[in-house]
Design goal:
The protein is α/β, with parallel strands linked by helices and 249 residues long. It has one domain: HUPs (Rossmann fold, 3-Layer(aba) Sandwich), CATH 3.40.50. Helices cover 27% and strands 27% of the residues. The strands form two sheets. A nine-stranded mixed beta sheet has the order 9-8-7-10-6-1-4-5-11, sandwiched between helices. A hairpin with a 2-residue loop joins β7 and β8. It is globular.
Amino acid sequence: MKVLIPVKRVIDANIKVRVKADGSGVETQNVKMAMNPFCEIAVEAAIRMKEAGQADEVIVISCGPQNSQDTIRTGLAMGADRGILVQHDDVLEPLAIAKLLKAVVEKEGTELVILGKQAVDGDNNQTGQMLAALLGWPQATFASKVEVADGYLNVTREVDGGLENIKSKMPAVVTVDLRLNEPRYASLPNIMKAKKKPIDVMTPADLSVDVTPRVTVINVVEPPARDAGIKVENVAQLVEKLRDEAKVI
């Protein structure tokens, strides 16, 4: 079984995001970038499947500029077998990415796609669902537990009311949540080995996919600064302020 893992290059989760001076977007120049944390969990899940003998090959794919190869190399250092870069320097919206992934899935003949449930930059939570719809495959989203047994996927999903257990046929698309696993750190020997693993580079045109943006960003602004908090002397004063100023009681 081939497993495809889409990964995204995002601003490191520990870095404070800054808006460009002209308001055209978020500043990424000279900013530390990293693999999206949810994507790391997806890579770890696929590698564990291979270690358990449930997968034959783990392929990491990224859609974006050339320096997205760094993110792919991270996945290779974790244990993936090879990488694919769909190189595109302009904006890629979730639907365009889903179409690109669909083309690669059909080209590679993969039977399982595991994605992070969302990226920490856009928080769209759309690509996995769109990909499943385009492929006509079953999907299991927000997975906190994934098991492969007898050609089926047993998935525990995190939903508003608690946990939901489902059984899905394969091929399938799975999006993973934070509690699925703890991603491993890539060791130095594996980082060196990853430099020799192959990365196939292609473009949207090679896959015959139109990635023209459908949304135009007019302006990006930072959220308004919050007022400083205050300390109260006692419970009575707290109740008074909640009643008279905040008007919540």
